[in-house]
Amino acid sequence: MSSEELFKRFVMLLKMWPVDATKQGRCLGEYVRKLFNGSFKNAGLSETNMDVKYWSKVYADLKPIANNEYAMKYPREKA
């Protein structure tokens, strides 16, 4: 996956992931945005300056969480 394609996919992923204003400083979406922005801002879209393999793995790990796949796969029992 190229860095440009990865950037586009991450932007779409982050659009699906809202920032919770009540959890300021503790929100996973906020943390991922800061980490992502810092990495891409420093490296630009140059594959030589950024770790495409690392960010591809992060994207693959966060996508099921953002799509709520685990909540649907393992529903909680209501007491």
Kindly describe this structure:
The chain is an all-alpha fold and 79 residues long. The protein is 63% helix and 0% strand. The chain contains 4 helices and no strands. It has helices spanning 3-16, 28-43, 52-66, 69-73. Helix 1 (3-16) packs parallel to helix 3 (52-66). The radius of gyration is 15 Å and the shape is globular. It starts with a helix and ends in a 6-residue tail after the last helix. The mean pLDDT is 83.
Helicity range of the residues? 55-70%
Count of helical segments?
Answer: 4
- Structural category is mainly alpha
Q: Tell me the span between the first and last alpha carbons.
A: 45 Å
Taking all Cα atoms into account, the compactness measure Rg is 15 Å
- Give the low-confidence spans: none
Overall body shape: globular
Largest sheet: none
Query: What percent of residues are in strands?
Result: under 5%
Key features?
79 residues; 0% strand
Task: Produce a short descriptive summary.
The protein is mainly α and 79 residues long. It is 63% helix and 0% strand. The chain is globular and about 50 Å long.
Topology of helices and strands:
Layout: H1 3-16, H2 28-43, H3 52-66, H4 69-73
Helix pairs in contact: 1-3
